[in-house]
Amino acid sequence: MPNFFFILDYYTARSRAALSGALEEELKNFSGSELGRVAANFLTEEERTALPRLGFFDRASRLRKGEQRFHRWEEANPDIVDLLERRARSKLA
Fold this sequence. Notes:
There is one protein chain. With 93 residues, this protein is an all-alpha fold. The protein has helices at 4-19, 27-30, 32-41, 45-50, 56-76, 78-92. It has one domain (4-92). The chain is built from 6 helices and no strands.
């Protein structure tokens, strides 16, 4: 099950960056650490446990796999995504 607190933190960081005027392609730079936590949460326990032992490129590749799983989860759960995004925006209001 996804960690909704990590996802909410990610959406909050994206919303904060968007309010600052960041362009869509810049948003990932402003929310990279939050996205990394979300991506790691979408890895299996075995994959997560191996992260500290991996080199830079292997670790980045593994986290990309988690990020892809997260984006598939977003596509499959638009109602939850909408709720969390609205919550993130309301935290900044």
